[in-house]
């Protein structure tokens, strides 16, 4: 009898430990996959069978990580981060191991940039390459990576202390601004507002169509950029990286006067390298379509946005949005149609004005006494940018609710949004406004920032 009691108590204790062990294993999977990618990139040769078998193992780990993230009793935002990391890490592993085929010599040449280095330097360099989704300071650096702002006065001569002070100040200012936006949003809602009325409530004030584009400039951009700046300051402060390894995450919002420029210039480019490489391979090897073909270009765009849609769909599901209600795929894939419309209108306008432009060029050449063709580089007219901003705002106003409204409602039902609003309620708006005003003066006067 005592033996049975002891066996039963041991079984109950083991059952109570299983969820904790499972939670620990799932949280450790990203680190395990990270180390496995480093080993495969450093210690296997290009095209080797061991590399391909290791990649299969990595993909299996990512599937396990994404699957168990939804089964664990953890905060929805943490589960969403685990799911996003699973897909993004898989795509980056496929890119590095099979498409770019990075090996130890590439890491030595592109990351360390010197023939002789210590083992610790090689390990740190290899690990940093695996986190470098934009390929910064390598031959694979993605197109339109934002340059350092003029206020840096030359990033090479910038001291670590000045860099950290700048990043921390601007990062805190951006996060403070996001809190003010959240607090203002919270004060417009009644305490008993149902989840389905969180965002539609803006219709009562006629702000429905103007709110959506602003979300991509204020809370989304500032929140992501603020965390990026704080992470860069921490990394540089402890000596893991250099200031040159942290170019700005976003370009100026003034560059987003077409949808192509919105996603390809203004928005962060962290997904561009792995997603674009995989999409190009699928389009060329699977369908025989290169970017030189018109259909191939839009097929590539569709595949890139499909991968982005799947990534955000995983985030939605793990955040509490039913997959049938998620608008991630529809939202991101719709930009393929938007690009077609945008390119078609621009091509039509180019053909209409082409003849007039040629006549003006000939007249200009005759006045200058030159009969050869002259290439004239002109800036985009202001009126064209105004029309472009109106077009971008109109498309985002129509398409953003499809994606964002189910996402915010899902967060509300899971309790994530009320958590943030409850935190915002504890903040004194006068203190926030005063701090924001002081930090704004400091940022603009001392550091400079381009929104």
TrEMBL record:
Annotated membrane-spanning segments are: 20-40, 52-72
Q: Organism's domain of life?
A: Eukaryota
Q: How does it sit in the membrane?
A: Multi-pass membrane protein
- Coiled coil ranges (UniProt) are none
Wax synthase domain sequence ranges: 246-333
What's the short name of a Pfam family annotated to this entry?
MBOAT_2
Q: Which UniProt keywords apply?
A: Membrane, Transmembrane, Transmembrane helix
GO cellular component entries:
membrane
Localization per record: Membrane
InterPro entries assigned to the protein according to its UniProt record, in alphabetical order: Wax_synthase_dom
Q: What is this protein called?
A: Wax synthase domain-containing protein
Species the sequence originates in: Aspergillus udagawae
């Amino acid at each position: 009898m005592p033996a049975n009691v002891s066996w039963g108590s041991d079984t109950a204790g083991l059952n109570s430990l299983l969820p904790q062990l499972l939670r620990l294993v799932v949280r450790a999977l990203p680190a395990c996959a990270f180390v496995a990618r480093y080993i495969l990139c450093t210690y296997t040769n290009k095209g080797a069978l061991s590399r391909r078998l290791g990649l299969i193992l990595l993909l299996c780990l990512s599937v396990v990580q994404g699957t168990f993230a939804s089964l664990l009793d953890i905060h929805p935002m943490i589960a969403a981060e685990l799911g996003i990391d699973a897909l993004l890490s898989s795509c980056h592993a496929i890119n590095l191991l099979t498409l770019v085929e990075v090996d130890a010599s590439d890491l030595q040449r592109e990351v360390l940039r010197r023939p002789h280095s210590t083992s610790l330097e090689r390990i740190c360099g290899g690990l940093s390459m695996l986190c470098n989704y934009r390929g910064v300071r390598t031959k694979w650096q993605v197109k339109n990576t934002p340059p350092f702002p003029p206020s840096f006065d030359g990033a090479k001569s910038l001291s670590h202390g000045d860099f950290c002070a700048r990043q921390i100040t601007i990062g805190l200012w951006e996060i403070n601004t996001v809190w003010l936006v959240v607090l203002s949003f919270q004060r417009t809602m009644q305490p008993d507002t149902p989840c389905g009325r969180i965002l539609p409530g803006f219709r009562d004030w006629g702000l429905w169509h103007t709110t959506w584009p602003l979300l991509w400039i204020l809370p989304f951009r500032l929140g992501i950029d603020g965390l990026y700046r704080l992470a860069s300051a921490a990394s540089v402060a402890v000596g893991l990286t250099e200031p040159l390894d942290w170019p700005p995450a976003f370009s100026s919002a003034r560059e987003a006067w077409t949808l192509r420029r919105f996603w390809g210039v203004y928005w962060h480019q962290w997904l561009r390298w792995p997603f674009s490489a995989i999409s190009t391979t699928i389009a060329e090897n699977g369908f025989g379509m290169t970017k030189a073909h018109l259909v191939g270009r839009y097929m590539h765009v569709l595949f890139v946005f499909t991968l982005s849609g799947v990534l955000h769909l995983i985030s939605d599901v793990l955040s509490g949005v039913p997959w049938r209600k998620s608008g991630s795929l529809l939202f991101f894939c719709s930009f393929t149609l938007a690009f077609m419309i945008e390119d078609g209108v621009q091509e039509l306008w180019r053909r209409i004005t082409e003849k007039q432009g040629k006549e003006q060029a000939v007249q200009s050449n005759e006045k200058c006494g030159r009969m050869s063709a002259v290439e004239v580089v002109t800036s985009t007219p202001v009126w064209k940018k105004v029309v472009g901003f109106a077009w971008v705002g109109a498309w985002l106003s129509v398409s953003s609710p499809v994606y964002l409204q189910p996402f915010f409602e899902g967060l509300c039902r899971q309790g994530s949004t009320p958590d943030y609003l409850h935190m915002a309620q504890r903040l004194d708006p006068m203190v926030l406004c005063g701090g924001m005003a002081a930090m704004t003066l400091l940022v603009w006067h001392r550091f400079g920032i381009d929104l």
